[in-house]
Amino acid sequence: MxxxxxxxxxxxxxxxxxxxxxxxxxDSSDDEGATTGTExxxxxTVPETTVPNSLTDADEDELGHVVASEEIHVxxxxxxxxxxxxxxxxxxxxxxxxxQIPYPVSDPTEQADELFAVVDGLRYEPYTELDDKxxxxxxxxxxxxxxxxxFVLIAELEPxxxxxxxxxxxxxxxxxxxxxxxxxxxxSLDEEYLRTGLNIPQDGVFAGYLSxxxxxxxxxxxxxxxxxxxxGIDPVTExxxxxxxxxxxxxxxxxxxxxxxxxxxKNLLRQFATxxxxxxxxxxxxxxxxxxxxxxxxxxxxxxxxxxxxxxEINEDDISGDIEVGGIDNFETFIPDIGKTNAPSTGESxxxxxxxxxxxxxxxxxxxxxxxxVTRGALENCIQAYFDDTDTPTxxxxxxxxxxxxxSESPLRQRYNIEDGTWSAIMRRVTDAAYRDVFDHxxxxxxxxxxxxxxxxxxxxIPTSHLxxxxxxxxxxxxxxxxxxxxxxxYNVDPNVKDTPLLVAVDEAHNYVSxxxxxxxxxxxxxxxxxxxxxxxxxxxxxxxxxxxEDIDGDILKQTNTNIFLGLREEVxxxxxxxxxxxxxxxxxxxxxQAVIKAPDVEAVEVKGLPYCLTQHSx
Length: 619
Hints:
By secondary structure, the chain is an alpha+beta fold. It is built from 18 helices and 25 strands.
């Protein structure tokens, strides 16, 4: 039970002289030591809770004060700091609001340190020993109705950091001091305080606006933009900026169908399509070069090719701040040319061929199953022997090569001692129809056009909506393996991949980097694990979009530092360990475009995406 003496500080004496209620009887019998009200002529006393507060300009942001009648503690593992909420602020405070509490200073000329905290919970407490859990209460309700005026509102605070004022600005540090009882608590509505307390960058890649409960926060009437840190090379000084771009520490965007996942992703990816350059080491000379980002988008639903076009419904004059808007000029679409399929309609595009030559160093591409060690070894030997014997490898040529060596006395089978049972297993495995449809169609083999696909400063979209099942899996995993192998290996690599900063966005990522069930999947996942571990060094970022984040390989998720969660189902939330603590319940109810972001070295916060897409988005 809170002592209502504290509330005297918040009363308006003029209002006291003019107000009287019928609740005095209940308050006059309060516990000893409690203040019952103020005498007004010959009227009875008036309880403070019935008097609305009147804030002045000086304390318009003041929410209340630290509660002195309850335990206050600050430890290395947990905190207990509660605040009394002034009567007139009750309708304005919400779970998720940010507050600041000053610490006392011995010198009044000094700037006080302040505790920066978030409202983690709200609760009502009665002033008196009132009982509304009986039939008696119902019978006397007409004479005395319990309502909000007979309760205090308590805000449960979670400390985040201590903010100090220095000669160079504000600094944040760990919470190692306890706030004093009765200290005023104010809403934090200053941009510098909010950015310092939450450690949100001042600039970078725009991802939305800081929000609470789905509503954008405003500072001086303007929404507060949330940026993901993205240092590179300063365009004026040509100096390498300090810090590591978050894009090369990998990103996850997860959300259920209908929560605006593609819309949000398009707006975020649009921010990377700029002339910004990044330092990257040339693999041949060792010199540090300055290159623009190449963004490759693997698009299973044919949704991203339209990013080359403007959204005609956007008025750029209505968009404030440093936000990239409009269709992307440096843009190419490459459609995998696959047999027995019709290419999707994407506007201007080029075809792309998956050559059988990719199998030479990736024999696992022909193993969408779990072979025995004997069969695997024999097949790998056959593949290697074929590539050693030909300068123009094709899938049809490989089959013909095997058929000419079918006899048990053939040089190939004799060299590797391949028994009849093993040979039969090989022939069954390599005659899958998907191989014939995927390999060697068209005129633009991936290695031959890699300079166009991975050109610096370009957005490259590879739609696969015309593919299904085994064809789609083989196509996407072939492209992914080509990118990853050439990016993280050191010898015999494609310089267009190796020496270009790359961001690879994979929609429906759970289909390609999930817990592996086959040798082919195991190969890709193992390579992806290696890639995410050394992405910062090689300038390779993995950007995964999915509605099933629980299916993404656990080791890859551990290396994914920027996590963006839109609305998710409860059964998904319970299986994803990277969801920030405290947001598990909220995520189930998030509306379209509402998300929680946990970025490297930044507090997890709620953001609200833009209500419109910055490029064309007709799906």
